[in-house]
Amino acid sequence: KYRSRKHCFYWAIEWFSDSQNFASMAVVKYDVCTGERKRFWSRKNWYPSEVAMVPSDREGAAEDEGVLLFVALDGAADTSYFIGVDASSMETISEVGPFPRIGFTTHGEFYPGL
Question: Among 31, 73, 96, 113, which has the highest number of CB atoms less than 10 A from its own CB?
């Protein structure tokens, strides 16, 4: 929807997210129009994979309206979860698991219509 168009938001994996531990990771929402790190999702000892943004199909939806999907490894429990996060607020809206450990360096893509 915003591919090759002016946009303000992007989501990324951030290492060293707590500025104290190199292993701390977060899913971060950046606003490139203001240069701000807007919001983030993280849990202590959890390691998220790259996110896939599934945009809202609502007519007139905001740019950041949708769901972020990713796998996250709970390092303390050695299990993985499939997580759904509100792309605007960065609040968890769905969590499925536990599953056996899945490497947290996996990449994610969303293909509309599949």
Answer: 73
Provide the 3-class DSSP secondary structure of residue 4.
coil
CB 82 within 8 A of CB 26: no
pLDDT at 72 over 80: yes
Q: What is the pTM of this model?
A: 0.83
d(CA 36, CA 29): 9
Q: Number of helices and strands (H, E) in the chain? A: 0, 8
CA distance 36 to 3: 21
Place of tokens 């609502």: 58
